[in-house]
Each structure stands twice: as structure tokens, then as C-alpha cells.
Amino acid sequence: AVLPNGLRVILIPEPKAPVVTVQVWYRVGSRDEVSGTTGLSHLMEHMMFKGTARYGKGEFSRLIAGRGGTENAFTSQDYTAYFENLASDQIGLALELEADRMTGLAIVDQEFLLERDVVKEERRFRTEDDPQGALIEQLSAVAFLAHPYRWPVIGWMNDLDRLTADDIRAYYHRQYTPANAVVVVVGDLDPTALLDRIRATFGAVEGPERPPRPAIVEPPQRGERRVIVKKEAQLPLVMAGYRVPNYAHPDTYALTVLTALLSEGRSARLHRALVYARQIALEAGGDYTALSADPPLLSVYATAHATTPIGDLERALFDELDRIKTTPPDERELTKAKNQIEAQFLLGQDSNFYRAMQIGMAETVGAGRGYLTTFVAKIRNVSAADVSRVAKTYLVEDTRTVGTLVPLPSPDATLPPATGSTPR
User: Fold this and answer.
1) CA 372 to CA 343: how far, in whole Å?
2) DSSP per residue over 132-149, as a string?
């Protein structure tokens, strides 16, 4: 259903237990930021828990916890989502609290400064002090030239330093509007009665029209790009990101199967070849998410043994990608990969929370619920020839970006060993 103020509502009854998940998805993420103000979406997520005129700071979380529920939120490149998991007879509280902060958030300057410091510390911990996080961030910045997928969801530190409470207020009023949101509720519910309740709770929430999301087309990549990160770390790491399509392209199903064949589990090709057979890597894997508003990257990576030259590991990694182009998976290997994908999808459907997540993600990136209803059938239709074809089409040198982590010794390693006894 769509309310007169533009709010979309999706209700899925699942009466197996007297619980529900309430999720509010906003179609805004780091993709919607501009250079100089990166990190706004994630910082906005933090500020949404700082209270309204009606409910003070921390009251949201205390009320939900007091009714035995849990709540949290997350931000990505394409969306920001908030959720509550609680008993079905407490659903009114979650709806009331979400509607209240959709329109009445109190953004106090001092609270903004405190929360900005929290986010800066989070950035230090997750990226600046984490070698793999730093490499991923640098690789994305090189792989995308024009598209905002090039900057980190948490934002660049210099931008965080410059952000003001006024920036947050303007962003909130522009993006946190009913017309830019989807309410998804899954669990023990009566759809007719609950829709009436949502109309009564959210119907009076006013806001501007859905903000436009400009189409940003990344220029064609015409040659391999490389980035080297030298950082204190224990082991070398090589990673490659390939330009691939998103959900809107029919090849995404074969790409999903290809990624599973390469990286899903210990019997996957990368782990089997690099970690088990050749013993030149400690771990190897990959990632691809088709449910992306714009074309993303398909990534593969491998962490070297301390004695493995990084060049040897890189060649071995790319050799495995070339092998799947010329040696399609046999029926057993293909069936196993497709079964893994289907099992993960269906297990997600069995959980109220993850089922709502699948729906919210599909709705906010533009795929819609129809994508979910046909997903399993289209995965089942992928053939071994399809897998090799998409590998040949997309896993090519000219459209990849390669990142290498070169470990530097810790400054502490140069200190002479301590001598003498330790006082007690």
C-alpha cells in the first residue's frame, strides 16, 4: 500500500510465533552524498537515536528494551534502515516511535559534536587501524572515478571534521520524508488491522516529495588500475574488483553462481586451490551483491602466507579466475553452488528479520519484490556454460582494479627487548 503522503507499506503475515520485526527503510545512503560532505548518511543514522521533542535522548532504546525488544540500524551505499524486533502486542510502540522521529528529530549542536566524535573513532577503528579495511577503501576510490560508490560509507575523516549540525538538519529534512521511506513489517500480524494502524500513526506525518536520485553513469574503464597500500600489518593481501552489472541485468544470476563457485565455503575453487592444494594463502574468497542501486564490483581476495611473495599469490589468484573461463564447473560442483545460494535465500525467508531485510533492500534499490519471487527459479536456470560466459565477459584485466597490501613492520618491533625483572 502507498499512503497519501507517499509512504510505502509492506505487511507480511507470519503467525508461527507471537513476534514481529518492524523496519523503516529510507532510500538514502552514501550514494546520495556529494564530495566534501561524505559520511552524512551514516552520521544521520547515529543522530536518529538522539531524541525528539516528545522522547528524550536514549528514551527510544529504553522503551523498546523495557518491552523486551531489540533495536538497531545500519547504513549502506544505497539505503539506511532502522528496525525493532519485539512481541507482536508491542507493535504500536515501535510504530509510534518511528513515526515520531521521522518528523520530529531534535538535532542539538552539542549532541551532534559528541556523536561526530563517536563516528570519527569508529572510522579509526574500522578503517584507519584495520589494514584490510584501508585497502578496500583505497581500492573503491580508484575503481570508481565519477560514481559516489568511490567514497566510504563512514566518510573521509576531513569531511567528518567539516560537517556541521546544520548539514545534518538540512539532510534530515530533505531525505527523511515519508515519500522516501518504506515500512516493512513481518510476523504475527493482521494485515487489515495493522494497515489501519499505520495509516493512523504515519498518515499525519508530512514531508517534501521524494528527493530525486540523479542517474550517475561511471565512465568506461579502459585499462587495469592498481593501488598499493603500505601499512603496519602481519601479512600481505591482494584484492581485485571487477566492474559488473547490478540486479537489472540478466547476467547477475550467473555472476551470483560464479561468485559462489569461487568463494563459498572450503570446497570453493579459490580456497581449494590457494589454501588447501598449493598452500600459498591463509584465506581466499570473494563477494558480489546484485541488489545494488547501480553497477557494483565483484571482488576476490587472498591473504598470503608470510613466506609467499605477493606477486606469486596474485598470479595464482588470477590463474584460478582464468581456469573457470576454460574449465566450466561439472554438474556436481554447479549443483552444490546453486543449492548453497538457494538454501541461504530460503533460510532468510524463514526469519522474520531477514525476510523483511530482503524486501526492504529490494524495494529501496529499485528491484522491487518481484525480484525476490523469481530469484530461486532464475538461479536454478543458470548453466555451466553461463558461468564460463560471464567469467569471460566480466573477469577481464581491462576492467579490474587490483589492490595490494604491503605490510610494514610495527614501530614497536624495532625497540630493543626489555631487560631486568618486572616489579610485582
Assistant:
1) 14
2) HHHHHHHHHHHH-SSSGG
Q: For residues 63 and 278, is the Cβ–Cβ distance under 8 A?
A: no
Does residue 34 register a pLDDT over 90? yes
Q: Are 390 and 225 in contact (CB under 8 A)?
A: no
pLDDT, one tens digit per residue, over 193-212 is 999 999 999 999 998 999 98
Q: Which strands form 225-232's sheet, in the order they lie side by side?
A: 225-232, 400-408, 237-243, 297-304, 281-287
Q: 252-279: per-residue pLDDT in tens?
A: 999 999 999 999 988 899 999 999 999 9
Of the candidates 10, 6, 31, the one whose C-alpha atom is nearest the C-alpha of residue 22 is 10
Q: Which residues pair with 72 in a beta bridge?
A: 83
Q: What are phi and psi of 234, to 5 degrees?
A: -85, -35
Greatest CA separation for the chain: 77
Could you list the active site residues?
45
Rounded to the nearest 10°, the torsion over CA 111, 113, 115, 116 is 160
